[in-house]
Structures are given as structure tokens and as C-alpha cells.
From TrEMBL:
Biased composition (Pro residues): 213-265
Protein name in UniProt: Excalibur calcium-binding domain-containing protein
TM annotation in the entry: 140-158
Region called Disordered, residue ranges: 161-300
Biased composition (Low complexity): 172-212
Keywords: Membrane, Transmembrane, Transmembrane helix
């Protein structure tokens, strides 16, 4: 069986959030046979959609998909609360999802999703680039070896040429040098020190001068006719310079539309209502017939289970 959470970045399941519009998808939700009072835990995918009815028509909202099919959407206020978290997960290359339960209520099969209490505290998945392939150093060694071989060949050619030149010399000064030792006569009681003087024999080279014959007399050049003066070329009319077109200024940058930040969670407020409804044993609408002990002034939007029964007509608006 295929894992429904495969490929999804499943958010923390901390607070329940009511899904609207399930009544239009009862046929798909009815596949989950839930007994009255029971529930069926599932994993759903979250994506973007556009609100088609009501006061926020045309605005973006978070759509809930079960097994690849739409089964409802979050309210406009809840979509704003988790909009920044959704964008961060999608920008990081992930596909957001969350845990949910399918249950049977007054409107038939209903679905409740579980999302993080503080959307700002969720770290989206990171994008990991593929490892960079290391470049082989083999071409560098091959190039270095080729350079060494070339220099070796050049060195051998130079040594061979020098050896040929040295063997072709007619006489070597070192080979022609003869050393003669003069004997020293010793007369007692005087001592005479002999000095050895080297004698150098120089080869005599005979130079033969060859007298070249006198060059033949040069022939005088014939006079050339004077060239006729060429008429001066008429200057071509210069075209009038055309004015350069003025560059068009670049269009002004479009203002970047950022998603509104989600409202900060209120301390001491019940998570099923907005604006703040205090947490008490019972809360009634101010000016109504309820006996409290706590009262709230309407209207309030029901975004979770209607614990205090403030929404009498089930239109998600209480204390109207």
C-alpha cells in the first residue's frame, strides 16, 4: 500500500483547525467508513486555491487534498495565519502536508486538520545541491610529462650540435700547448730555485687573397618623361549627422507583493475563535440570554470546533 505521507513535509500536529466546504465532497469522504463518535486518522496534502464565494471571494486560501482529491479548504483567516509557513516550505522545494481526522458530524463527513501552534517556529526543509564531481588531475600530469619530454629532446639536439662543432675545430689551444722543463744547476753552498716556463706552440695559418675582376660599367638610365599632373579629386559632400535616438528609461520596478504576516497568537484565547474569545467554563454572547460566566461581543469567526455554541446557524459566524 502506498504511503500517503510519501513526498510530503508533514507539519507538527499541535492544534486542531476546522476545514470548510466538506459538504461538496461527501462522495469522496464517504470512502472512509467512520462510525458516529469515531474518527479515522489520515495524512493530507496542503496547496493553494482561490476562494470562489463569500466576502473573501478571489482571495487565496489553503486547500486540503486527501488521496490527491480536494476535500475542502481553510478559512481566510486561518489561511493568512499559515501563509508564510506554506510559502517557506514551497520555496525550499518541499510539499507541505499535515495530519488530519475524518469524522461524522452535523454536516455529514467532516475533516479536521492539525497544524503547528506557532507557524514561525517551524523550520522548512533544506535544499541540498548534488555533490560537485571532483576534476581528475590526470590531464595535468600528462601535460607536465609532455613538456618534460619536449625539453629533453631539445637538450639532446643542443648537446649533439655542440659535440659536432667541437670535433670540427682544426686546432685546440689546450692540445697545442707544450711544457718544457729547464734543468736547474746547484752550486754549493748557494741554492738556485728553478722556474718552469710553459712554451706555447701556435699554428700558422696561410691566407690566400683572391682579386675579384672589376665590375662592368653601369648603363646610364634613359630619361623618363615627366608625369602629367592629375586633377585634384572633388571632395564628396559629407552627409548631415542624424540625431541619435534618446534611450528609453527602464520601466519602474514593480512593487513586490508579500503575503501578510500571520496574526500573532493571543495568550489566553480559545484557538477555535477569532477575534479573541477567553477560555472559561462557558462563554455566551454579550447582550444575549446566556448566563456566562464569561461574555464576548460579536461578531466572532468560528475557526475550530464550536465549543461554546456561539454559532447557532452554523455559518461560521457567531454572536451576530
Amino acid at each position: 500500500m502506498e504511503d500517503p505521507a510519501a513526498g510530503l513535509f508533514v507539519l507538527k500536529a499541535e492544534v486542531p483547525v476546522v476545514v470548510t466546504g466538506e459538504e461538496d465532497h461527501q462522495a469522496w469522504l464517504a470512502r472512509y467508513a467512520v462510525a458516529p463518535g469515531g474518527n479515522w486518522r489520515v495524512v493530507v496534502a496542503l496547496t493553494w486555491c482561490t476562494i470562489t464565494t463569500g466576502r473573501y471571494r478571489g482571495q487565496y486560501a489553503i486547500e486540503v487534498r486527501l488521496d490527491g482529491r480536494r476535500v475542502g479548504e481553510l478559512t481566510y483567516l486561518m489561511s493568512r495565519r499559515y501563509a508564510e509557513l506554506m510559502g517557506a516550505v514551497i520555496d525550499a522545494g518541499g510539499h507541505p502536508g499535515c495530519e488530519a481526522v475524518v469524522q461524522v458530524g452535523e454536516r455529514g463527513h467532516e475533516i479536521v486538520v492539525y497544524l503547528p501552534r506557532d507557524p514561525a517556529g517551524v523550520v522548512p526543509p533544506g535544499c541540498f545541491a548534488p555533490p560537485v564531481r571532483k576534476r581528475s588531475r590526470r590531464p595535468m600530469w600528462i601535460a607536465a610529462g609532455a613538456v618534460v619530454v619536449v625539453f629533453g629532446i631539445i637538450g639532446n639536439l643542443v648537446d649533439s650540435r655542440q659535440s659536432t662543432t667541437d670535433s670540427a675545430d682544426p686546432l685546440s689551444t689546450a692540445a697545442a700547448r707544450t711544457t718544457t722543463t729547464t734543468p736547474t744547476t746547484a752550486v754549493p753552498p748557494r741554492t738556485t730555485t728553478s722556474t718552469t716556463a710553459p712554451t706555447t706552440t701556435t699554428a700558422t695559418t696561410t691566407t690566400t687573397t683572391t682579386v675579384e675582376p672589376a665590375p662592368p660599367p653601369q648603363r646610364q638610365p634613359e630619361p623618363q618623361p615627366q608625369p602629367q599632373p592629375q586633377p585634384q579629386p572633388q571632395p564628396q559632400p559629407q552627409p548631415q549627422p542624424q540625431p541619435q535616438p534618446q534611450p528609453q528609461p527602464p520601466p519602474p520596478p514593480q512593487p513586490r507583493t508579500e503575503a501578510p504576516p500571520p496574526p500573532a497568537p493571543d495568550q489566553g484565547c480559545h484557538p477555535s475563535y477569532t477575534p479573541c474569545v477567553p477560555i472559561a467554563d462557558d462563554v455566551d454572547c454579550e447582550g444575549g440570554s446566556g448566563d456566562g460566566p464569561a461574555y464576548v461581543r460579536g461578531p466572532v469567526t468560528v475557526i475550530g470546533p464550536d465549543v461554546y455554541r456561539l454559532d447557532a446557524d452554523n455559518d461560521r459566524e457567531g454572536c451576530e
